[in-house]
Amino acid sequence: MTRLRKIILWVLIPIILLLTALIAPLYKTDFDIPTIAMTVSLVFTILVGFFIATATTNYLNFNSYLADESAYLITIHNLGKLIQPSAEKKLGHAIDQYIIASLDFPLISYIKNTDKEFDEIIKIIDDLNPQDKKIKRTAALNYIQEIKNNLFQTRQSILLTAPRTTSKIHWVVLIMLTLLLGYLLLALRTGEIFSQIVIGIVLGALYLILTLLNEVDNDHFLEESVALEDVQNIFRVIGKLKYYPPHAFEKGYIKEPLENYRTAVYKNYPYSTEKKMVVVKK
């Protein structure tokens, strides 16, 4: 999320809603506003509470699965190096390509777009052959197969928890309820400055609740705060420079590192992930 978008979403629009409550003409209705507002707010609270709870659960699970995937990849690299030292470079390259490919896509869709790179890792694992009959190499070979199965399960779990909880029809209902509730709240203004400020704050809070739901459901927070930095440890373990996709800087997810790192020059992103790797030296 760019800095400008953050300011618009989290500061400017709430201020506009507050000013709306202060300067919009007063109006009254003939029906019982408090009773209807209470009914609408109850329905709104139940729906939003359900969606936020579900989206937050998915968010936390998704975060855990991403950490598991990173840990499994690191373990696979270390076990592969132990089983067959000559395969270390090839396995490290395959893991490197998989992580780079995964960063080409949003978190919610990277699993289904990285099958080719993932299959290459699995192929190398299955081709590992201990260079001698030492017990530790045999044990590592058995264990790496277990880790491989865990990695399959983790990718499937990521695939299941990645989709949005709220669909378009859900958002239509939520927005309609919010607009209705906003209309009723504005009708409750008495002309006193305090009541107008309170109602303006409530309108801003309603908007921010929906914005928060959208950000959590879209995994924007996770993409900004965790995903990019979490995978950098994998690059360190496999002996590669850190990699950051250019859109990570453009969207303000992270600040440019003070050390050497890799990035990419895309030919036609996001319509194509064809790119040229570039090393940025500090």
From TrEMBL:
The keyword Signal does not apply. It holds the Pfam family Bestrophin-like. The chain crosses the membrane at residues 7-27, 33-53, 169-187, 193-213. InterPro entries: DUF4239 (IPR025333). The lineage of its organism: Bacteria, Candidatus Kerfeldiibacteriota. It comes from the Bacteria. This is DUF4239 domain-containing protein. Keywords: Membrane, Transmembrane, Transmembrane helix.
